[in-house]
Amino acid sequence: MSFYNNFKNHFATYYPGILVAILIAISAEFLSNNYDVPAMLMALLLGMVFYFLGEEGKCVKGLTFSSQSILRLGIILLGTRISADLVLSLDYCYYMRSTANYFIRNYDFESFWF
């Protein structure tokens, strides 16, 4: 199986759950801005509402990936008080190297790509 086909299969497997996680985050931020409540509270409430998506179906693998890898990266950035604006203001090459370094050290590529 070629790299492209393997990547395409994994993308098709993970994207529904990652898309749901992104939509919940955007919705929480929107509700936070319009109703003057903390975004984390809105994200927790929306996560409780959409909990059933993580039980079975197409979204399970993507939500698992989001709750493990993406959430860990967000918690690390939040813990070090690094905002998205600060990360995006860095040199592009440095940003790509540090992101690649994180995933190379913390992800099992053997099971993902092969």
At a glance:
The protein is mostly helical. The chain has one domain (3-82).
Structure description:
This protein is an all-alpha fold. The chain has one domain (3-82). The chain contains six helices and no strands. The longest helix has 33 residues, at 3-35. The chain is flat. It starts with a helix and ends with a helix.
Outline: flat
Average pLDDT rating: 80
- What fraction strand? under 5%
Number of strands: 0
Give the biggest sheet: none
**Helical amount:** over 70%
Order of helices and strands: HHHHHH
Total domain modules: 1
Question: Any chance you could write out the topology, listing elements then pairs?
Answer:
Layout lengths: L2 H33 L3 H11 L10 H20 L4 H6 L2 H15 L2 H5 L1
Helix pairs in contact: 1-2, 1-3
Task: Please give a handful of descriptors for the protein shown.
mainly alpha; 6 helices; flat
